[in-house]
Amino acid sequence: MSSLSQNSPTFLNPFVQLRRERGLSRLEMSQALGVSYSRLVSLELGYSSRLGAKVRSGLATLGINPDLVARDFTRWLETQRYALLARDEKGAADGKH
Length: 97
Known about the structure:
Number of domains: 1
Number of strands: 0
Order of helices and strands: HHHHH
CATH class: Mainly Alpha
Distance between the termini: 40 Å
Helix content: 55-70%
Low-confidence stretches: 1-9
Mean pLDDT: 86
Radius of gyration: 15 Å
Number of helices: 5
Strand content: under 5%
Shape: elongated
């Protein structure tokens, strides 16, 4: 897995990054991980905040360290949350709330 730049406010979701690096569709990636298409989509969109045993097992089967993905996924979720909060604060300051 490529190193994600935590200094960048908009680094990619690690599941999107892994899928793109391998040139896989969402369906192909979900099959490779052994999870449903909807499970992969929920991870890519940040609807789920936990990887779970099945995702971790699928990552390990692909030779990917699940602990590193979990770390990067948590960081990605945090950047999304902070970006949303910053946007809301800016909107409030501009009188848009």
